[in-house]
Amino acid sequence: QLQLHESGPGLVKPSETLSLTCTVSSGSITTSYYWGWIRQPPGKGLEWIGSIYYSGSTYYNASLKSRVTLSVDTSNNQFSLKLNSVTAADTAVYYCARHGIPGTTFGCFDPWGQGTLVTVSS
Amino acid sequence: DIQMTQSPSSLSASVGDRVTISCRASQGISNYLAWYQQKPGKVPKVLIYGASTLQSGVPSRFSGSGSGTDFTLTISSLQSEDVATYYCQKYNSGPFTFGGGTKVQIK
Q1: Block means of pLDDT (10 residues each) for chain B, length 107 residues?
Q2: Contact B55 A51 (CB under 8 A)
Q3: Which of B37, B77, B81, B106 sits at 20 to 30 Å (Cα–Cα) from A54?
Q4: For testing contact with chain B, the best of A109, A114, A117 (most B CBs within 10 A)
Q5: Interface check B71 vs A, CB under 8 A
Q6: How do beta strands A116-120 and A11-12 pair?
Q7: Residue pLDDT, tens place only, A29-59
Q8: Which own/partner contact pairs does A47-51 have at CB distance under 8 Å and 24+ positions apart?
Q9: Which positions in chain A touch B32 (Cβ < 8 Å)?
């Protein structure tokens, strides 16, 4: 059963870059799926950040696009998120998830990683 | 961009009640809509995709309907384990926007 696991620093200083990696296990990242990032500030709702295909094709949330970089490492079955110039507003649980091709029946997000809390504070 | 609006933002109902949650898209998205359940402190999980297809393993008391701009998630008989926040999400094309969520509690 496909599993995703987020890893990275739990504390990032303001103005610095948040970097997270999602490792995919029990399955290949080079399949016909997109790999996405979602975040959830404490006590708030879900916000989609962006998604990447193994070929490098990407979708971004326009509100974050100027600060986000997504990348994929097929040799290690991983994909990564970089969010620069962070502020306290970027404090959230960050999830990675797989989703199908947009505009197809199975385009929903499943499965999800367990999430990792990233706090932005000096 | 298409906005996803859920209502109500919260509700309280008794065990056994029929519960209905609405999700409205600001433009048509065909049936490319999913519903997720997030229990307190847990990871969201997909309940329904394609607006009305039940994910494997999800109890049959959950159902989804709608197409275009108006969608509904129904719990036919609310159980205590259904206490959670429910989110809709569009996936016809990017951006893959979530609704604001509906918090369901037991009265």
Answers
A1: 97 98 97 97 97 96 98 98 98 94 97
A2: no
A3: B37
A4: A109
A5: no
A6: parallel
A7: 999 999 999 999 999 999 999 999 999 999 9
A8: A47/A92, A47/B98, A48/B89, A48/B95, A48/B96, A48/B97, A48/B98, A49/A81, A49/A83, A49/A94, A50/A81, A51/A99, A51/B94, A51/B96
A9: 102-103, 105, 107
Comparing C-alpha atoms, which of A27, A30, A31, A34 is closest to residue A108? Answer: A34
Which amino acid, one-letter code, is at A26?
S
CB proximity A95 to B under 8 Å: yes
B50 touching A (Cβ < 8 Å): yes
Query: Would you tell me how many other CB atoms lie within 10 Å of the CB of residue B65?
Result: 14
Check CB contact under 8 Å for B94 and A59.
yes
